[in-house]
Design goal:
This protein has helices at 14-25, 46-49, 70-80, 93-122, 130-153, 165-179, 188-197, 201-204, 209-213; strands at 5-9, 32-35, 59-62, 65-67. With 224 residues, it is α+β, with helices and mostly antiparallel strands. Strands 2-1-3-4 form a four-stranded mixed β-sheet, covered by helices on one side.
Length: 224
């Protein structure tokens, strides 16, 4: 079963981390995998391009089936292994609807964060438009404020009383945001959620090793 799976991944990448959490939640340990370096451009290698023609990670294959979008891969794993491990999509219609909604909605906050990080990495400081940077950071702060509100209403998980696909998709983005400068004290509910979930076995066992070994050296979200 898991031996028929292969995952190319990059450490600290929220999309890769989502798939790894889902695999753990579904008790699919023992899958084949290979850690690649973004810095060395290994994600553009032929072995990745053979699975994902965009040269992006994750690149995931189960037997003959290639699934490269992280949320699609997580949904696939839940669908194929419903009776195994922990259910990630609730059976109750209202809870299911909310889990689906939050899972897809989490891609919005992720993209807003990526836009800021990418701009900081690619544009020299002297060439940056400060008004645009300020606007993007305010937009990301407002977006995380929406998620802070969700936890006030539902909790302790992002889509209600049980861990679900929504947490699989959202948590890695939040963890990276705190890692690269976003202040936990500004978002107390999200901070509590983060500190609670990081002890969950599926998350603890897949936590990026370089985060444990090295302090962050990049803080583009310090003003969010």
């Amino acid at each position: 079963m898991a031996k028929d799976m292969f995952l190319f991944w990059g450490s600290g990448s929220p999309p890769c981390w989502r798939v790894m959490i889902a695999l753990e939640e579904k008790n699919l340990q023992g899958y084949q995998h290979k850690l690649l370096s973004f810095e060395k451009g290994e994600h553009k290698s032929k072995e990745v391009l053979d699975i994902n023609p965009r040269g992006q990670l994750p690149a995931f294959r189960h037997g003959p089936n290639a699934i490269n979008e992280s949320v699609a891969a997580c949904m696939y794993l839940e669908d194929q292994f419903k009776s195994q491990g922990n259910p990630l999509i609730p059976s109750d219609p209202a809870e299911k609807a909310l889990a689906y909604q939050r899972s897809i909605e989490a891609l919005t906050v992720h993209q807003k964060m990526v836009d800021i990080v990418t701009y900081n990495r690619r544009v020299p400081e002297a060439e940056r438009h400060e008004a645009a940077v300020k606007r993007d950071k305010e937009g990301l702060g407002s977006e995380f404020g929406v998620w802070e509100g969700y936890l006030h209403k539902t909790g302790p998980y992002i889509a209600g009383k049980n861990f679900s696909m929504a947490d699989v998709v959202f948590f890695p983005t939040l963890a990276l945001a705190f890692r690269i400068g976003m202040k936990q004290e500004k978002f107390p509910k999200l901070s509590s959620y983060h500190n609670f979930l990081k002890e969950r076995p599926s998350i603890k066992s897949t936590w990026p090793q370089h985060w444990l070994q090295n302090p962050p050296t990049f803080d583009p979200l310090k003003d969010v």
